[in-house]
Amino acid sequence: xxxxxxxxxxxxxxxxxxxxxxxxxxxxxxxxxxxxxxxxxxxxxxxxxxxxxxxxxxxxxxxxxxxxxxxxxxxxxxxxxxxxxxxxxxxxxxxxxxxxxxxxxxxxxxxxxxxxxxxxxxxxxxxxxxxxxxxxxxxxxxxxxxxxxxxxxxxxxxxxxxxxxxxxxxxxxxxxxxxxxxxxxxxxxxxxxxxxxxxxxxxxxxxxxxxxxxxxxxxxxxxxxxxxxxxxxxxxxxxxxxxxxxxxxxxxxxxxxxxxxxxxxxxxxxxxxxxxxxxxxxxxxxxxxx
Length: 290
Prior knowledge:
- This protein folds into 2 domains: 28-160, Nuclear Transport Factor 2, Chain: A (Roll), CATH 3.10.450.50; 163-288, Roll (Nuclear Transport Factor 2, Chain: A), CATH 3.10.450.
- It has helices at residues 2-26, 32-55, 81-90, 163-182, 186-190, 209-221; strands spanning 65-72, 78-79, 95-108, 112-124, 130-144, 147-160, 193-200, 207-208, 224-238, 241-254, 260-273, 279-288.
- A hairpin with a 5-residue loop joins strand 1 and strand 2.
- The N and C termini lie far apart (99 Å).
- The strands form 2 sheets. Strands 2-1-6-5-4-3 form a 6-stranded mixed beta sheet.
- It is α+β, with helices and mostly antiparallel strands.
- The protein is elongated.
């Protein structure tokens, strides 16, 4: 019995030493020639990736992504290779420029590398303002069957927009709301609100979220013809939130009864910056002006 135990112990020790030897071999540092070659290659791959995003064409870089790729996008979601390719091809934003900076390649052994970089994207938003997005990236690449592929990626937003462009976006929302109300375009008006918005209108219960707003307010819009003027006299930014205070004047006509009601109200609106840089109405409270 002791001899069997000893044999097992010897086999385990041999196995451990063999695995340890393999581990040390795979983690052996790459020589300078390999480091230089891989640095040039992955720098080119990273710039090809940027060009693919700019051109909305992932055909050249699809093979750069491992079938097992997991990519962490700035919203917090995890996407796979298919999702990343789709995001490149179908991104609705047309970029004016996209530049990488501070790109660094670091090898771990001869078949794993880490690429870190910063990126700056610039484009014109729907309001006609130039938008700037600054990000940091960390991408892990692995050599599979002689081919380098990204296996893990992460993008983190450092700055989205500037205070000037953010303020311009927020100030544009009341005018957009006014146009939607006066043209009786309920869907356009509702789209101005955050998914978790809360609204407190005169003589109405508090509505929580766009779903409840749609359910409770759409039936009201069908019977009302509005002629509103929304004027925010004060708008201020506070980080990723902003507030606006202003007046609502005009009239409403009930299409069923023909009754016309004069409107003279005051509202306070809290706006919230979205993960894509847009701004939406997050809270709104309306009081009667006397």
